[in-house]
Every structure is written in C-alpha cells, then in structure tokens.
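tool_call predict_complex ligand=magnesium ion
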Amino acid sequence: MEHTAVRDLLDASSIGKNAIAKGWVRTKRGNKNVAFIAFNDGSTIHNLQLVIDPNAFSEELLKSISTGACIRAKGAVVESKGSGQATEMQVEELLVYGEADPETYPLQKKGHTLEFLREIAHLRPRTNTFGAVLRIRHHLAFAIHKYFNDRGFFYLHSPIITGSDAEGAGEMFHVTNFDLNAPPRTPDGAIDYAQDFFGKETNLTVSGQLEGELGAMALGKVYTFGPTFRAENSNTPRHLAEFWMIEPEMAFHEIQDNMDLAEDMLKYLVKYALEHCKDDIEFLNNMYDKELLGRLSSVVEKPFTRLTYTDAISILEPKSKDFEFKVDWGTDLQKEHENYLVEHFKGPVILTDYPKHIKAFYMKQNDDGKTVRAMDVLFPWIGEIIGGSQREENYDKLLARVKEMGIHEESLWWYLETRKFGTCPHAGFGLGFERLVLFVTGMQNIRDVIPFPRTPKNAEF
Ligand code: 4AD
Ligand code: MG
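tool_result ok
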C-alpha cells in the first residue's frame, strides 16, 4: 500500500480507513498505558497524532523513537477524541527508518531563535516556521507561472552566465576557469581573457532583462524567472547576493500598461497565497505578526497610489529634519523615505519619472531632458519590491545615453541592434521573488525566506 500524506489523513474523509504514514517525529509523550506521537511529513503545518499502545511494541523500538526520528506507521484512522484535530491514527505497525540521537539532535525544544536556525539551515525546514515559509514560497512560484501562462506570456530562459552588465552598476561575480594564481597575461600585463573558457570576460547575471527584451521583440510578451547575482556588500535584512527575479517584458506596453500589470500581478499573487496557503499564513500571523493577515488583505483590496518622483520629493522635503539621509530633487530615495511614503498613503505606492542620473541606461528618456520613465513599486514592510521602466526604443537616444554613462558599447552591440531592426515601444519590470515572499510571510529577514541564503561571508549549505 502506498503511504498517504498527513494533509489527507487529517481530513475527516479518511476516518475508517487503514493507512500508512511516513514522516518525522515532532514530539513523543505518554505513560505506560498510552503513548502519543506528534507526527509531521511536511505536507501541512498540522501534525497527525499517532496513538500507541506501549504494550504492543518492544521497549527497545519505542525507545528508539524520539524527536527528529523518521518513522513509518500503519494503522486505522479514527475520529480524534482530543481537541484540535479531526482524526488520529491508532497505530498497529511501527518501523524506524532513522533514529535521531536526543543528545545531539539540535531541534529539541521549541522556541529556537531564527538566528540559531540559520546556523542549522540543513535542519530548519523541519520546523513549523520554515515548513510554512517553504510551502508558501512554492505556491507563489507556481502562481507566477500560472499568472503569466493564463495571460499569453511565454517563459524565456535568460542565461545565467553573461558578458554584459545589465544594470550598469558593476556589482558582478566573475566567471572564469583560469588558475587564479597564474592567469595568462597579455604583453602589457593585463589578464588575457581571450584565453579564458568563453574567450572573453564573463560574469553571473545581475538581471535577465536585456535578453528578455530580445524575446519580447519576437514573441510579444515574455517573462524570465531565474536566479540573479549581485556582489554588493549589502548586509541588510532585504538583500541577498543570490536571489530570484521575475522579469516580464512586453512589446507595445508603455509606462501606464507597465504599472497596471505590476499592480494586477502583485494583487493576484497575494490573493492566491491567501487562498492556497491559509493555514500556513495563519500560523505565521499568530506566531510572529498579528497584523500580517490584515496587511495582505489591504494590499489586495486598495488601489496603489501612483505619483511622480518629483511629487514625492515635495512631500518628503518639508519633513527633512525627521530623516537621517538628505532628501532633495536628484537624490536617490533611502529606505526611510520609501517607508514614509508608504505610511503617508497607507499602502503600496508606485513612483515614476525619476531623475535620469540615478537610473539605468536603458530607460526611456522624457522630453524634459531630466527624467526617465522609471517605475518603482514600494510596499509596506518591504520598501522597493519592483523596479522597472518603459525602455528607450530610439537607437540614437539609447546610444547617446550608453556613451554618456561610459558603458562599454561593444559588449552591447546585439542589444543596440534591436533598436535598428524593427524597434517598438516596450516596457517591463523586475520583481524580487524573496521580497515578495518576505511580504507574504511577514518574516523580518530575507535570509529566512530562501532555503539556503547567500550573503556576504556566508555560503554554507
Ligand atoms: O531594481 P532592480 O535592480 O531592477 C532590475 O534588475 C531591472 N533589470 C528589472 C527590469 O526592469 N526587468 O531589481 C529588481 C528587483 C528589486 O525591486 C528588488 O525587489 C529585487 O529585484 N532586488 C533584490 N532582492 C534581493 N536582494 C537583492 N540584492 C536585490 N536587488 C534587487
Ligand atoms: Mg531598483
């Protein structure tokens, strides 16, 4: 007989059935007449109660079952007499796949700190918190593909190794197979990348956008969803060195369409999570953050506020003395400024038309000569969750900007050619997947919403 998931065994429809369950022991308690095991297999936040008659099993077998052990239990699913669960299992057969020595198994008591759990990231998925986070993460990833598929977008696989710097920020991890102690050199002493694996300098991608644009120029509407890498030394609760990004790119979309899509997509994803991850979100709400459910519902219901960067500055400037960082027209907004705006408007804010010198080279230039058609979506709790723009589709204007910003033009020849051959208005954006998961779970630190975080000085597991 196949084993059945705990999620299904907990449903009243299982009452009266004989079943096999396989999973891990959370706790064991009892006396000489009856023992209870709280049993979990990851299929749900809830445990199945196993009821055991100690006289029916050897003492040795029962002793080997402790917190963390992996077991197989066979028995009848019956209506539970205890409160809190509909069913329980009267165990008839028990098998231990793997013991977990109580002296050394680290997940003994409840209430480990999240910091401690980061040090045992190989075991933390077995906790209620990380089980909930990882299930929510899965459902959100699935919902993203569903959202785009249902709307005629095609999933484009952009490369992970590239020769360009899409954001022009120079925060890239190099990719090479040179012996770093003795790389080949040119006569003038520089490293000779012509002899490297790809015959040129390469790095891990910071964004799939540039290739996304190539796809949109042929398929109309595409999205990428893959890992991105940034070698920025940002040790904050919102930054990872390896994170996942979703980047839709649409031909014939202008900035308004881009904003409409971003708002619709975010609402869809939060709503999807509320509908499909109810138990896990409720658990996190009760455990960590009583305002989580309210915050999620409010994002789904309320329209996002839309305003220009210039208007935002006129709201922020009079409050200058309340901020740590200077704020006037032309400065990049800091987290405290973004938070202020989100609180001021009591919900998500979409800011547009930023000064061109604080944004990337590919953004469409406005007629004022000062601003570009950029768009950032700011979220309560998170700050920037999406960054995007309408793209500069005019070849001469784009080339002028590339030159002005000192960007290596030769490495972008293929990108520039799309503006020579059948160019069109187009737009897109990037959603940071972990920032979305942070928002939906209400967790405080981005290291706690990805299974194995990569941050400065940290690549264990
Ligand atoms: O604003 P960013 O840098 O935009 C781009 O990369 C564009 N190419 C997107 C596009 O238009 N296709 O990054 C997009 C989003 C941010 O809003 C943020 O949510 C997330 O990616 N992000 C990070 N998430 C975690 N750790 C980091 N270090 C991040 N850097 C950006
Ligand atoms: Mg950004």
